[in-house]
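Bumping with the actual sequence this time:
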Amino acid sequence: MSSTTAFVSIGDLRKGRSAVSAPVEVAAGGCSTQGGEGKASCGSSGGPDDMPAEIWEKVKNHPCYSEEAHHHFARMHVAVAPACNIQCNYCNRKYDCSNESRPGVVSQKLTPEQAVKKVLAVASEIPQMTVLGIAGPGDALANPKKTFDTMRELSEKAPDIKLCLSTNGLALPDMVDEICKYNIDHVTITINMVDPAVGEKIYPWIFWDHKRVTGYEAAKILHERQMLGLEMLTARGVLTKINSVLIPGINDEHLIEVNREVKKRGAFLHNIMPLISEAEHGTVFGLTGQRGPTAQELKAVQDACMGGANLMRHCRQCRADAVGLLGEDRSEEFTLDKIEAMDVVYDIDKRRAYQQKVEAERAAQHQAKVDALADALDASLIAGEEDLSVLVAVATEGQGRVNQHFGHATEFQIYEVSRKQALFVGHRRVDLYCQGGFGEDEQLPSIVSAINDCHAVLVSKIGACPRDELTAAGIEPVDQYAHDFIEKAALQWFADYCARVASGAIVHQPRGDARIRQGAFTGAVESAA
């Protein structure tokens, strides 16, 4: 079999768009997922005005379900579920690994008793930790006793912590009653296909009804169980997030159909993630040369799904033992031997006091964004650029502020900025520029390449060399908004940019992202001839 390279346009990705945007009815207790371009509606970018009060209470402090919350609140995963009932071509679980950051990897497997002890220790040290999830390293529901023993004890000892689990969905319909029994009101289901012909390219086998099933039949069973489980959770008022791994040439265009089908069944969010396929991880896809998508290809597919199920774009594809804010991992601070030496005091009042402080900060952040929006609107109208939209990269250490030195960034958060909004649309991992106190100039080309569709990069500080390199590449380095709220800074920069366009000081030039939206997306997709 030979391989050829095909080119996919954004128009091809948007086939079926009208069907995606059709409104649906969801069961009582669920959440309408009617979305639309440029409008948050009960999704990760939504706020209290976008959803029923009871739903807002469930998501406002959840860093995975609320994009705004991920700047302020932390999560942790406990590795109590090593077994799995399916095989994915993109997965290779590792149980004694500290140097890989991806799902399915842990440093230590835990018993339920050890997991509870670790959660209490972390929560006593990190008051912003609001969410506990079981995400493997196998499948939470392929290890039901360990999973639910952990959840039962935590619901008694740490009642203020939200309980979540992740599953491939094969065993889900049989476990819905147990999930609801322990008030696990956030469930993530990994759904990569709704067509078994696509699924058999992703899943070599499943273990079902006491036997191994392969091929099309395996994918068909998995699909049916996933859809049934999702419908059952929606009917019970459990919020569901759907994870989908974008695999170029296999399910990239098909994910639009996935988005439509999960929306019809009441999914709260759809998280489309890039395939991780480095050969050193030992996965089937990695060893056979299946590539992952570029950041631009990922965004194009996500954009093509706008109007369907609401999208989550701030996922960091965490390890199964991750601790801390999204984008950071403090698990090494809480190994079992270190926990044994800790004086653990679970102070629920201290935790509540911190969360009240965060609410005041979030209110200030919201007001700053509202004020900046008015300025951006005025500037874009003066410039005659009412429809102008650009991407801006941001270096941040958290708290929703521009507060990181360019040289210290290992990722940039990407915002799409217009006169209407500053919308978070993703993040880009980059090589660390400053190492040992000095800039590594050989890292600059890869950093510039990662954000080359952005018009500006907002940082707290930047050195002369990277400033010159970015400017030469057409990316404006901006440090005058250091420590401002991100949305406020992005909108203020946009207003200034529009003013410069209006005065003739600069000419607006579309960059990579604009060309994608105009239909010239040329991401190469490997397909079998």
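The tokens above came from a reply further down the thread. The chain has a mean pLDDT of 81.
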